[in-house]
Automatic annotation (TrEMBL):
Organism taxonomic ancestry: Bacteria, Pseudomonadati, Pseudomonadota, Alphaproteobacteria, Hyphomicrobiales
Similarity-based family: Belongs to the non-flavoprotein flavin reductase family.
Domain Flavin reductase like: 33-176
Key words, A-Z: Monooxygenase, Oxidoreductase
Example GO molecular function: riboflavin reductase (NADPH) activity
SMART domains: Flavin_Reduct
Chain positions covered by the region annotation Disordered: 1-23
Keyword Transport: no
Record Pfam families: Flavin_Reduct
Record InterPro entries: Flavin_Rdtase-like_dom (IPR002563), NADH-dep_flavin_reductase (IPR050268), Split_barrel_FMN-bd (IPR012349)
Name recorded for this polypeptide: Nitrilotriacetate monooxygenase
Amino acid sequence: MNDLPQQAAGPDPANEFASDSSSIDPRDFRNALGTYATGVTIITAAAPDGKPYGLTCNSFASVSLNPPLVLWSLVVYSSSLTIFQNASHFTVNVLGASQQALASKFAKSSDDKFTGVDWTPGLGQAPVLAESVANFQCRSVNRYYGGDHVIFLGAVEAYTYNTTEPLLFARGAFGRFLSDDERSKSP
């Protein structure tokens, strides 16, 4: 843990960004990013043959309300990268607090991630997972390369949501939101 400000050395961040010469320690940087609690999603798409693909992701964010745009990012060495790059659509499935096991299942490499998972085909055949807190069915609009990730931009064409409690992730662990009422009842 380090409370001292971390700065990248050098006057040209573009050159530093494209090389391994950063003075910022990647593990410590990841720890700092981990202090920002996020929701947990499973991003899904279908291969040209219709086979469903999915992965756990917490790099999801809204971009614009009008038009409705969202983004998420995927590491460039992911075995699923080609599927997502070539898919016409993807679905962002926001997980509920009771879906931690599902998040863990989709976070691991496996050919049978969808075995035993209740889902229906959505736009572009991208799987919509049952019992998600929300889902955003998106047409792939663009992608951008940023360091060791590809950033996917999607136009939301359909969505649903409910009032189920969302699953959260911070500091490398799953968690949940405690309301003021719940906090005051804690021993």
